[in-house]
Each structure stands twice: as C-alpha cells, then as structure tokens.
Amino acid sequence: MIKESTRQPEQACFREVVAAGDYFIRTIKKGQTVRLLDLEGNQAADTLFYSAEDPAERYSAMDTIREQGNVYLTAGTTLMSNRMNPLLEIVADTCGRHDTLGGACATESNTVRYDLEKRCMHACRDSWMLAVNEHPEFHLAKQDITHNINFFMNVPVTADGGLTFEDGISAPGKYVELTARMDTVILISNCPQLNNPCNGYNPTPIEVLIWND
Amino acid sequence: MNESLYNTLLPGSAHWSLRVRRGMQLRFTDQEGGANLSVLMYNPEMLLERYNAPDSLKGQHTFKLSKGNCLYSDMGRVFASIVEDDFGWHDTVCGTLSEKTLKEKYAVRSYQDCHNQWTLSGEHSFLTELAKYGLTERDMAANLNLFSRVTTDDDGNLVFDASAATPGASITLRFEMDTLVILHTCPHPLNPSEEYPMKPVQIEMRKADPVADDDYCKNFRPENGRAFENNRLYHLGL
Fold first, then answer.
1. Which domain holds residue A130?
2. Of the residues A73, A139, B147, B194, which has the fewest C-beta atoms closer than 10 A?
3. Among candidate residues A35, A3, A12, the one with its CA nearest the CA of residue A176
4. Which residues in chain B have their CB less than 8 angstroms from residue A109's CB?
5. Domain contains A4
6. Residue A122: inside a domain, yes or no?
7. Partner residue facing A56 (CB), from B53, B57, B137
8. How far apart, in whole angstroms, are the C-alpha atoms of residue A194 and residue A90?
9. How many structural domains is chain A composed of?
10. Alpha helices in A6-163, H assignment, sequence order
C-alpha cells in the first residue's frame, strides 16, 4: 500500500548515507521514526531489529507474516518480535511491497546460488559479522543474525508455490518509514550483491533519517 | 528397501530430539491426518550452523517444500534431502505456536489436571529441547512445519489448507551430514481447529542407499548440486 509521509528531511534529528557494502547499526528510541531512502533506486537494504533492552528479543519474520496473514510488508504492517510484541510499525511506504522471505546473501549461500568460486565475493552476512564484532556494546553474535527484511526487494510468491526474484519495484527517492514501539536496535547491511537483480546488479547508497516524532 | 532399524510413535503435543547420522533416512508418517511436525536442525559438531529456511527457499526458487528439495544450512550445505513425499506441500515460513497464542486460542489443559493429555505450545516444546544442547531462544530459527500446507493468493494472503490433511501421508528425509534434529508435534499456528489437535507422527529410521550421480534431489536444481559439493568438501575436512 502506497502511503506518503509528511515528515520533512530538514527536521530530521539524524541523517547518514550508507554506502553499498557497508553496515549501519544504531538504537532507535521508542516513538522515534526511521526512514530508509533508496537514493538511486533498485537497492536492497537487508535489515534486522532487536529490542535494545534485551537483544534475545528480535524481529521475527515468521511471527510478523503469520500475525498479519500476508507474506509482504508495507504501510500498516506491524513488525513483531519473537516474543509476539510489536517492535515497529511501517507508517509510510512509497515502494508498496518489501520482502521478508528471501533472507540475506552470505558468502556460503553465494557458492550454492551462483558458483563455488564466488565464495569470496562480499555479502550481507559478512557486513553483519563485522558489525557484531566491531560493536560488542550491542551484545550481538552470529546466532542473532536471523531471518531479515529486504527493504525495497520484490520477491513474489506464485499460486503454485514458486518464489521469484523480480527486478525491483523501487526507484530513486522511494522510501519506507517505521516508528519504533520499543527502544530498538536497527542493523542494516546495504546489500553488496553483484550476482542478481535484487539491486539491478549495481549496488548503490541508501540514506537513513531519524525523527524524534 | 533397507531394513527398518527403529520405529517409534511421537504422540500429539510432544517434543523430542535426536542426532541422526549421515547416510540414514527418517520416514515421518501422519497416521491419522491433520498432524503437524515442526522441525529445527543443527550441526552437532558446530551448533552455530543451523537449518536456514530463507536460503532453502531462495536457493531452490520455492515457497513450498516437497520431493526433490534439499534443506540447507546457513553455511551452504545440505542437512537433508526430501527423497519421498506424498503430501506435496510443506510449510516453513509460519513459525510455531507461541505460548501466547496457545492461551488465546485453546482451552489450555495443564499437566496437573491432564497429565499426558496436556496442551503444549510449540514455543515451550522447542525451548525445552534446545536447552538440552545449550541452545536458547536466540537459536530458534524459522522451522519446518511438515504436513501443514499454507498457500498464498495473488495479494500474498496466507491460507492454511485444512483439506490437505491425509491419513497415512508420509515424507522421507535422507540425511547428508550428521544432524541434530529437534521435533515437536504441537499444532500449526494457523490451524483453524477450535479444539487443540492431538495428532501423533510415526518415525521410522532406515539406512539410506548411497547418493548416486543421477540422484533426484542432487539434480533437482543446479543449486542442490553445488550444495552437495560443499558437503563433500566439509567431509574432506575443509
């Protein structure tokens, strides 16, 4: 569902451009709103969320899609934790659909999907591995790197049970906005994938903006 | 077919775990129809390696799991291949019955009052088994829900297909590496039944035939062949 935001970038309390292949980690306070902005279009922002108080409570793709009865995320979706608590709500979305079935790329899964000799190509999970070791203050480790959201990615499920990876429905300037329902850690890998159309074979930067209200 | 080495019945609303060796196969049978067998998998040598539903789905371009599909770990290897399946469509995206939903949905039967007829949640069942191996809720990844068919419509709405329940339906997993298998038989969280379904699952273990070059699962998708190659390297010690 397309829903535009009334928030103005000039009033944001935080703005940062995240290059493709980099990670971003920060705490979003309860009531704050975070926007992910696809600057050049067709990018994939692989994202995980955790309760800032206890990261054992985290975004759960299964609980989220089951509780809303739909596999796609868009405006109106409440992101549920593994303890069945609302973590964040998608309050605006100019893209219309985001994936949470396909997971993130990893060097190991790249060998399966593309070629055994692509094992050293950069991947989202490697960005997250570096993030958890560079930021021990968030108390995250490999088992916390779970089933993520792919903002701006289009992964339709077909009626006969297929899963297809379509060219992105995102475009330059499209965004998604989420309001935190609890103090939440956001961990993004701005996807470096060069082997599939999830980011148009051309990884590009995104911008993260945060508003206090 | 090789001789049956072990045969057991997992009652409804029950949990169990076992370490299955490479080269064995497990046949699960929904005796009465309407069972749900939830499954998590870990590498007993390295518990941080676990069943990865997103990698399994995107690697094989599928939303459902059936014969020919392989169940991938997060390290690009195959825990198990689905070598036989007459049910046709197993879910792996809907998670498990939470304690909260159990209490909202069903007339809960306590152990004190009902002993073995008590109604367990999938959440408590998994937590109980995981703790035996030092694993916690942080390790609870997306699980398989065998014998539960959940489809989507054109808009992505999830539909639990209760009509798919078939007495005697079975699925056989052939294990391609040593695997810690965590199981429970609590109901699928989208099962619309007003009464808590208590459905047993039969488990039979046999030795599997060696994986041939023209093996159906290994050749089902080119990705599966590469994942099998990763298993070969792992068993070489790489």
1. 9-21+39-174+184-211
2. B194
3. A35
4. 52, 55, 58-59, 72, 74, 76
5. no
6. yes
7. B137
8. 28
9. 1
10. 61-68, 107-113, 124-134
Residues of chain A neighbouring B156 (CB-CB closer than 8 A): 70-72, 156-157
Q: Give domain status of residue A145, yes or no.
A: yes
Question: Do the Cβ atoms of B77 and B172 come closer than 8 Å?
Answer: no
Contact at CB, B94 and A62, closer than 8 angstroms = yes
B28-51 residue pLDDT tens: 999 999 999 999 999 999 999 999
Tokens 């339906």, located at residue: B169
Residue (of A122, A142, A121) closest to A131 by Cα position = A142
- pTM for the complete prediction? 0.97
Minimum distance, in Å, between the CA of residue A70 and any CA atom of chain B:
4
Alpha helices, DSSP H only, in chain B?
A: 53-59, 99-105, 111-114, 122-131, 222-235
**Which chain A residues have a beta carbon less than 8 Å from that of B74?**
106, 108-109
Q: How many CA atoms, within 13 angstroms, populate the side-chain half-sphere of residue B56?
A: 29
Return residues 123-152 of A near B (CB < 8 Å).
Answer: 142-144, 146-147
Contact A146 B156 (CB under 8 A): no
Contact between B158 and A65 using a beta-carbon 8 Å cutoff: yes
**Triad B10, B13, B18: Cα angle to 5°:** 45
Chain B residue closest to A160 (CA)? Answer: B151
Q: Please judge whether A70 and B158 are an interchain contact, meaning their C-beta atoms are less than 8 angstroms apart.
A: yes
Residue A88 falls inside a structural domain:
yes
Short-list B110, B114, B73, B95, CA closest to B186: B95
Between CA A30 and CA A50 the distance in angstroms is 12
φ, ψ at B63 (rounded to 5°): -100, -30
Query: What ipTM did this prediction achieve?
Result: 0.96
Put simply, whether B48 touches A (Cβ < 8 Å) is yes
Tens-place pLDDT, residues B93-110: 999 999 999 999 999 999
